[in-house]
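Notebook entry, structure prediction.
Reason for the run: the old model in the group folder had no record of what sequence produced it. Starting over properly, with the input documented here first.
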Amino acid sequence: MTNEVLLYTGSAVSIVWGVAHLAPIKPVIAGFGDISADNKRIITMEWLAEGFTIIFIGLLVALITALYDHANAISILVYRASAGMLIFMAVLTALTGARTKMTPIRVCPFILFSAAVLFILGSIL
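New structure, fully documented this time:
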């Protein structure tokens, strides 16, 4: 039961953060100032890709937890691989975007890492 609470909590954190990531696209793009249309498209694409990836990870863990035994080998693999991807994304953001003055981007590594820790704990407890 504790495992499932941790896994669902991590999933909710991931999904909510992914949705929150998608909401401010226009202001984020505007923050880059006068850039070419191609650069705006590339930034939009990357911003959307990261948001949808975070949502996907949360949904994947939630679905695996809901549909399968959380203690089977495949479920554990999904939880740990998902945690690994979130940790990778947290490190990437910490080394790049978190060095900006934008508060949401500065807290992003902590949120992603927290969801990853919940997935790991949910897979071992």
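Summary: Residues 2-124 form one domain.
The old model has been moved to the deprecated folder.
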